[in-house]
Automatic annotation (TrEMBL):
<dbReference type="GO" id="GO:0030968">
    <property type="term" value="P:endoplasmic reticulum unfolded protein response"/>
</dbReference>
<protein>
    <recommendedName>
        <fullName>Ribosome-associated complex subunit</fullName>
    </recommendedName>
</protein>
<keyword id="KW-0143">Chaperone</keyword>
<dbReference type="GO" id="GO:0140662">
    <property type="term" value="F:ATP-dependent protein folding chaperone"/>
</dbReference>
<dbReference type="InterPro" id="IPR013126">
    <property type="entry name" value="Hsp_70_fam"/>
</dbReference>
<dbReference type="InterPro" id="IPR043129">
    <property type="entry name" value="ATPase_NBD"/>
</dbReference>
<dbReference type="GO" id="GO:0034663">
    <property type="term" value="C:endoplasmic reticulum chaperone complex"/>
</dbReference>
<dbReference type="GO" id="GO:0005524">
    <property type="term" value="F:ATP binding"/>
</dbReference>
<dbReference type="Pfam" id="PF00012">
    <property type="entry name" value="HSP70"/>
</dbReference>
<keyword id="KW-0067">ATP-binding</keyword>
<keyword id="KW-0547">Nucleotide-binding</keyword>
Length: 523
């Protein structure tokens, strides 16, 4: 997830906008000398009876080893939980990856997720939205400190945009907007799909010669292997003779659970099996959260090292019953353990090609696959891509995998802020889901916006004769996500009743460009 602020003004020409990334955007890096800030949050609530009177909080890279030492007081990668309930499969997978975490249902809020953090008598339940808002507010404070240190900048951060997975549900998008409001962000410009953001960053870096503005369309795929998921965003890129470039986000393929954390789990399982053998333990043993977290931390390091080396030496002092645990894990062992999963790594690309609205595409129709996400560096994933594409030349390592999403989000934020017609880059996004409306609880939804149509449209839908009291629901891929309970809306005069029904219930629906939210505007 990337946050971006629009803090510059005075961009007044095509060339200046085209150079926006390199001359007007700055990254706010963490205080430590690292390129990425882990989305960790450590909380130590101080209780008086059942009431929280204070909370010690530590964020990001400052958490250090706290999450290993006190896993029950640590939360990370919370974006995967936004808009979910404890019954969701994604939530069960989250618990499997995060040892010591306890999730409970908030019965007062339709089973939304509470994280139970702390230890001993100092334990409290926190809504996932509240924890996410704390972390987002911390990021804002960091940006303001960066501005304070720059004598040429005004210490003010008003307009913000945030990236989100392209497959994120309507509930997840709505909850993220609520979270930003809770974090005291005064002006949210929009939610930018991660694949779109990377494509924009690519386009801003892709300098064209005059003869290349020839109106010819080429296709690319942004292949993003993140911490929790893998996505493939197919987009077309057309430079016209008037020096503008049209970019159409055509389709998205995705695997919501295949990503860096999943691969770490595979390494964890290898090390765990060696641990069982070393100490002659039964496979049914369940490690305490602290030991499991230490093993998971080692698995994460091993996965990273094995991307560049052929083996990793595990050495954990006083790990079990005051005994050291030492072993070696090889890249061959790691790759053998995931050999049956290779198709999962490339399936999002095939799905994106197959679902292109203008007709199915093949790998021969795309010019290159643009790599993004830390886990895309994994050797066996890149080998699988070469096998799929037929040539290593089709793999484009042309964007900074740690920065491209933030940069693209910032550029799109500027476009949303200014609505400038001077911009040489025109971005059109197409829906990857169907959206519909239904009356009553059992009626099949009528499609309002179908998959493959442009986002940002509005339309009128006539619902026909209705009762005085009824339920109206909005649907995403056939599943309801918002309900309206309407009552007493019709005239009691039977002569005018039908006319009132016909006039009052032409509904106007909108699919927002800024956040891809399907909503009811008026009736």
């Amino acid at each position: 997830m990337s946050l971006s602020w629009v803090l510059t003004s005075g961009i007044n020409s095509q060339r200046q906008l085209w150079q926006l990334q390199e001359s007007h955007l700055r990254l706010s890096l963490p205080t430590r000398a690292r390129e990425r800030t882990p989305s960790f949050y450590h909380s130590k609530p101080v209780m008086k009876g059942k009431k929280v009177i204070d909370t010690e909080r530590v964020y990001g890279s400052q958490v250090g080893s706290l999450c290993t030492r006190f896993p029950e007081a640590c939360a990370s990668n919370l974006k995967r939980l936004l808009g979910k309930s404890v019954e969701d499969d994604a939530v069960s997978e989250y618990v499997n990856h995060h040892f010591g975490v306890t999730l409970v249902a908030d019965e007062a809020r339709n089973g939304s997720i509470l994280l139970r953090l702390g230890s001993g008598n100092n334990v409290a339940d926190f809504p996932v939205e509240e924890l996410s808002a704390m972390m987002l507010n911390h990021v804002k404070d960091r940006v303001l400190k960066t501005l304070d240190s720059n004598p040429d900048a005004q210490s003010k951060a008003e307009d913000v945009a945030i990236s989100i997975e392209p497959f994120a549900s309507q509930l997840s998008r709505l909850v993220l907007l609520d979270t930003l409001q809770l974090a005291d962000y005064s002006s949210v410009l929009g939610l930018v799909d991660e694949g779109t953001a990377v494509a924009i960053a690519f386009a801003s870096n892709h300098k064209l010669e005059d003869e290349e503005f020839d109106g010819k369309t080429v296709h690319y795929v942004v292949y993003d292997v993140g911490a929790g998921s893998t996505t493939a965003t197919l987009f077309s890129y057309t430079p016209y003779q008037n020096q503008t470039v049209h970019m159409d986000i055509e389709s998205v393929g995705y695997d919501e659970s295949f990503g860096g954390e999943f691969l770490t789990t595979q390494v964890y399982q290898l090390i765990f099996e060696k641990f069982l053998k070393e100490f002659n333990l039964d496979a049914s043993i369940v490690l305490p959260p602290k030991l499991a977290s230490r093993l998971a931390e080692t698995a994460e390091k091993a996965k990273t090292i094995l991307s560049a080396n052929t083996e990793y030496k595990v050495s954990l002092e006083s790990f079990y019953e005051d005994k050291d645990f030492k072993t070696i894990i090889t890249r061959e062992e790691y790759e053998n353990s995931v050999s049956s999963l290779l198709e999962r790594s490339s399936k999002p690309i095939l799905d994106a090609l197959k679902n292109c609205p203008s007709g199915p595409k093949t790998v021969s129709d795309i010019k290159a696959v643009i790599l993004n996400g830390g886990a895309s560096r994994t050797p066996f994933i890149q080998k699988q891509l070469v096998s799929l594409l037929g040539s290593e030349n089709k793999i484009a390592k042309v964007v900074n995998t740690d920065e491209a999403c933030a940069m693209g989000t910032a550029i799109q934020a500027y476009n949303l802020k200014t609505s400038s017609k001077l911009s040489p880059l025109v971005v059109n996004e197409k829906l990857i889901k169907d959206f519909g409306v239904s009356i009553g609880s059992s009626e099949k939804p009528a499609t309002v916006f179908s998959k493959g149509t442009l986002s940002g449209n509005s339309t009128m839908v006539s619902l026909g004769p209705l009762e005085d009291n009824f339920q109206l629901s909005l649907h995403e891929d056939g599943k309801p996500f918002v309900y309206y309970y309407l009552t007493g809306l019709f005239a009691k005069d039977p002569i005018h009743e039908v006319q009132a029904r016909e006039e009052r219930f032409d509904l106007e629906h909108s699919q927002s460009t800024k956040a891809k939210i399907f909503t009811l505007i008026s009736f």
